[in-house]
């Protein structure tokens, strides 16, 4: 067992992560989980310290991906178990940057299911690890997600303060090579998070906040490369939701059509669940034909989906 074997495992994780981004967790969850036993067994065959630390990191990241794909498949218990194992291995590897990323992903799971305080606790632990790692990119990711959590609580001041910090940290990180598990978070994803925070504030505080997020959401949608299908779909959902909340229903229909089309093609129950925010925004305008078209399209996707999870 040597460095070449570790590199092969890292390449496998990268390939599976790309499938997850492009097609959703259902496209690769089984493949990820099938590799866990053999990857874990590799840990017993290494004696060289520098190889062992890198191997622990690679196996930890495979478990990290297993957690994320289970989350995307609406399997929270399995996701949390995988994240817990990933964290143990990342600690063993002494990799604070990866620990920060795992904490971020656990926080996102809690946020998705409405456990905002639990999410904030994980983001805070992740920030501690990111500071130890000296990773400005990890700090930016956590700040952006802390902003989202505060937006969900209706805390406008806190949400905007964390967004400002995320921008500053991201600017400090741009010249550094990102780790594989954090490389997704470039300018486009930062823009998406800025738009997401404003969209959340539009839902829970005042619809006017959504208007401030439209330029960032539009920028993100234009910037997502071809392989980032799920991220593009989630951002389209936010843009359609913001327009629907503000009564721009003709625009919401146009944007929502693309969002629903992408959501239907993805093997990602999480994305389809997020469509309910768009449906709820459209339902505020009962009797409007455009609003009804949005609701009907989302209902049709929910009831007719035959995707094998």
Description:
The protein is mainly α and 309 residues long. It has a domain at 186-309: Serine Threonine Protein Phosphatase 5, Tetratricopeptide repeat, CATH 1.25.40. It is 79% helix and 0% strand. Helix 11 (229-245) packs antiparallel against helix 12.
Descriptive key words:
single chain; 309 residues; Serine Threonine Protein Phosphatase 5, Tetratricopeptide repeat; 14 helices; 79% helix; globular
Helix content: over 70%
Q: Strand pairing plus helix content: what structural class?
A: mainly alpha
Mean pLDDT: 95
Counting copies of identical and different chains, the oligomeric state is: single chain
**Shape label:** globular
> What's the total count of β strands?
0
What CATH calls the topology of the domain at 186-309 is Serine Threonine Protein Phosphatase 5, Tetratricopeptide repeat
N- to C-terminal distance: 35 Å
CATH architecture heading of the domain at 186-309? Alpha Horseshoe
Instruction: Spell out the helices and strands N to C.
Output: HHHHHHHHHHHHHH
Question: So what's the CATH class of the domain at 186-309?
Answer: Mainly Alpha
- Outline the low-pLDDT stretches: none
Major sheet: none
Percentage beta strand: under 5%
Rounded radius of gyration (Å): 20 Å
- What is the count of helical runs? 14
